[in-house]
Amino acid sequence: MAAIETTTGPRGASFLRVALALQTLAVFFQAVTAGLLLATSYGETLHGVGARVMYGATMLYVLAAVLAWRPGGGSARPVLRSCGFLALASVQVVLGIAHVPSVHVPLGVAMFGLSLLDLGRGDRS
Asked: If you count DSSP H runs as helices and E runs as strands, how many of each does the chain have, helices first?
């Protein structure tokens, strides 16, 4: 009988890292476009498009975490972190639509920091 692999394979871990890097980049893009929002006429359009990309990247991160966990045999911790980040992203979208910058901006900064911390965590779960 063949042994069952209990660690995340290199492809699953790579997909997870790429998805997390894409999420981090998308959140950073949001910070840049927030500044453009105040300074240019096209900033609002870029920030709106960036919000959709960031939300999609966050959902991709959840998918990658689930695939690395279940079929890949990895840890469930990335799933919990990615779902928590998706919840924060959902709140962020609602706050942005409601035009509540007093919470929207600090939450965006916290999200960028959390995404960077998660990215810096490396392959450790």
From this structure: 4, 0
Percent helix / strand / coil, the chain, rounded to 5: 80, 0, 20
Of the candidates 76, 109, 78, 115, which has an alpha carbon nearest to the alpha carbon of residue 95?
109
- Which two three-digit tokens encode residue 120? 């810096």
Q: Which residue is associated with the tokens 């042994």? A: 3
How far, in Å, CA of 66 to CA of 45, rounded? 32
* pLDDT tens-place string over residues 49-66: 999 999 999 999 999 999
User: Residue 74: left if φ>0, alpha if ψ -120 to 50, beta else—which one?
Assistant: beta
CA 54/CA 12 separation, integer angstroms? 21
Q: pTM (2 decimals)? A: 0.84
